[in-house]
Design a protein that fits this description.
2 domains; 0% strand; 224 residues; Rna Polymerase Sigma Factor, Chain: A
Length: 224
């Protein structure tokens, strides 16, 4: 997916030796190596975070192909500007901010109706251990754990409801409910205060619950 030529070419003198697992190297060290032009170190960062970046992007733009484009652009931008990463936050929070900005820019520019393709992101969120205990989406999905048809229908409703939220409300729901980011990480990624994030999340959840109740015919209280 990631097509930056400097990152994809085979390196003659790789800094990550064959007996040195990339998983054993922390992000900051990989970033420091990438700053010096070590493309294999940046490739390791890509392998570590591209799936999470895609999950975030597809939750916001709601289209798989567009999400792939957003993620590719985000990693190209991150590679180009890796020298500007100051280390005040984690690398993935810095990356998520790039992904989020590109995703929001994309949907603001496009403003076109496309089929909701949110099933994969919802499934990922429902099965992830990183999602907080206060998470709305997995709680809804788990109300009928043995009924796959009902769960599939609910995922469709969730995708529809998410698609009708504003980009900022959709973004905070995806980051909190599916990715399990903390309020501080979300504030860093969105470039706003923690209080703003909490306010957006509160209103996003209320709007989401209201729309889901309408889609389900008001059969049950999703906030219970």
């Amino acid at each position: 997916m990631f097509q930056h030529p400097n990152v994809n070419k085979r390196l003659e003198n790789p800094s990550i030796r064959s007996n040195e697992a990339a998983d054993d190297i922390d992000d900051l060290e990989l970033v420091e190596r990438a700053r010096t032009g070590d493309d294999e170190a940046f490739r390791a960062l890509f392998e570590r975070y591209h799936r999470r970046a895609y999950s975030l992007a597809v939750g916001v733009v709601r289209n798989r192909d567009d999400a792939l484009d957003v993620v590719q652009d985000a990693f190209i931008k991150a590679h180009r500007h890796i020298g500007k990463f100051e280390g005040n936050s984690s690398f993935y929070t810095w990356l998520y901010r790039i992904v989020m900005n590109l995703a929001i820019d994309h949907i603001r520019k496009a403003k076109r109706g496309k089929p909701v393709e949110f099933t994969d992101a919802v499934s990922h969120g429902a099965e992830s251990d990183s999602v907080g205990e206060d998470s709305l989406l997995p709680r809804i999905l788990d109300e009928n754990p043995g009924k796959s048809l009902v769960r599939k229908e609910m995922r469709g409703h969730i995708g529809t409801a998410l698609g009708e939220l504003s980009e900022n409300h959709r973004a905070v729901l995806v980051m909190r409910e599916l990715e399990g980011l903390s309020y501080e990480e979300m504030a860093e990624a969105m470039g706003c205060s923690k209080g703003t994030i909490m306010s957006r999340l509160f209103h996003a959840r209320k709007n989401m619950q209201k729309r889901l109740l309408e889609l389900m015919g008001g059969e049950k209280d999703l906030g219970a």
